Amino acid sequence: MDFKEYQDKAKVTIQNYIADEKINTMIPFLGIIGEAGSVITELKKKLRDGDSYINYKQKLKEELGDVLWYISTIATQSDIDLAEIASYNLSKIHDRFSEDSEILYTNYDEGFSENEILPDEFEVEFISKIDNGKKTLYIIDKSNGKPIGDLLTDNSYEDDGYRFHDIFHFGYLANLGWSPVIRKLMNRKRRSNPEIDENEDGARAQIIEELISLLIYNEARNHQLLKYSKSIDTGLLKLVQRLVSKLEVKDCSAKLWEITILNSYKVFNELIENDGGRVVVSKKNRRLTYMGKN
Q: What tens digit of pLDDT does each residue of 136-145 get?
């Protein structure tokens, strides 16, 4: 039986209990809460009685069926197809929890000239120094010895290591193949296409990328800068996806963002602990790698 057939057959069993239509539509919402409790009750019995509870599977099927009926009823009353709910749910779950082998990457540089594309792989060095008693940082492109961007500080009253935050932008480049900020710093904007140059590589996209970095950082501070984390809060990942919903990177899955953030923060913490060092930024291998200090 498919979802459509089930919903059509379940529809004819919907009851109107009282004349008030609003209350009738509320009853299935209350019913699903009660039936969810019944499912938990079956688990309690299984834990309590163990293998002696021989009717566990049959009773669980019955209680789960009741939950399904209420879900179908709520969907019917809301003019939503049950099959559509199932399809959307699978899409959402795959976006959040798909394995690395299932993740699809997009080459945003396809069709552009060599001087406009982000490098496949290169090494940068984060070099710390003291300037007038303040900790500062500059980043060197090891391929040509030239600085990438300006001299950086924490821009804060406290020493919180945020001067190393450009590693997040290099992380977006490596893991996602995307970073309007690094395109600007390395002079790799796609100027041959004025529309792409303005909308994907321009100031607004750069601001959004900086906002994402700061947003994640403020959350990470509450979790020891993700030093021991193996996952990222789903709500935060969804917020990041909403922020980039008008940009080319909009199709990147929540799972891919999670991989990107965890990889970037691993290297970020290594840079802080060592007060700088060398990092390989590899778009071809989809990761950042900390190489230590000279």
A: 999 999 999 9
